[in-house]
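Hi everyone,

Forwarding the result from last night's run.
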Amino acid sequence: MSDRVSPVDPTKPMPLAVEIKGTGFPILCLHGHPGRSSSMSVFTNHLSQRFQTIAPDLRGYGKSQTNQPFQMAAHLSDLELLLQQHHISRCLVLGWSLGGILAMELALKLPKTVSGLVLVATAAHPRSNHPAISWQDNLYTGLASVVNRLAPGWQWNIDTFGKQSLYRYLIQQHTATAYQYLADEGMIAYLQTSAAAQKALRTALRTRYDRLAALQAIEVPCLVLAGENDRHITAASSWETAQHLPQCQAICYPNTAHLFPWEIPQQIRLDIDRWIDQNPEVIES
C-alpha cells in the first residue's frame, strides 16, 4: 500500500507516504539519507513474510515531499502521527543510518511503544572518516550511476567507473548484487531527496549530535549491525553505541561498508531472524 502526500505546515506533524507489507506484529522500518521507503526492501521483502512491515518516506524524502524548512525533530512528530494513524501501540523498529538515529530517539520518546531496536550502520554519537571529495569523485560517481541505471551490475562499468567513484566508500564488495540495489534504489532515492531534507541533516550534523548518555534509558533488546570499513558512520562509533545500550548484541561484518545490507543481504537477514528468535519478547504485543 502506498500513499502520496502534499506539503504541510512544517510546525505540525506531516502525514507520510508509507509502504505496508505483510501481516502480523508490526516492524517500523526507517530509511537513511538519502533514502525512501523502498530503500528498505532488502529488509521488508523478507520480514513481511512473517510480520507487518511499515516503511515510510520520511519528511522531505521519496513521496513525502516538502519545500518548507524543518528540523530533524520533525521526523519524530511525523512518526508518532504515523503510528497513531495505523493504530500501532507497540512495534519493533529497524533503522538504517539516519533511520537508526531516529529509531533510538523514538525509543527514548515512546518507551512503551518500542519493543526492540535493530540498528544498522548507525550510532548515537556518529563519527565519519570519509576522505575529502574531489571533482573526479563526483564525475566518476555520475558516470557510474547513469550507466549502472541503464545496465545494472555491468562488470565493465563496475571496473571502469564504479571502483573509481564514491561508491568505493559506500561498498567494499563491488558485486552485481550490490550494483543492482544501487540501480534500483540508490540513484532514485538520491534524486528524490529534497533540498529541505539536505539542509535539515546538515544543520543537525553541525550540532555534533551525541546521545550516548541517554541510551541507558533504553531497556529493550537491541541489535547493532556495522560494516567494518564504513567511512560514513564508523564501526567504532557503532560499537560504542552498542556498549552503552543495556541489552545489546553487536555484529561487525568484515569487508563491508555503509551499504553492507546491499553487499551481504542474505547474511544480514539471517542474523536479524536469529536475533528475533532469540528475543521473542520484541514481537510480543
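Strands lie at 18-21, 26-30, 52-56, 91-96, 114-120, 222-227, 248-253.

Cheers,
N.
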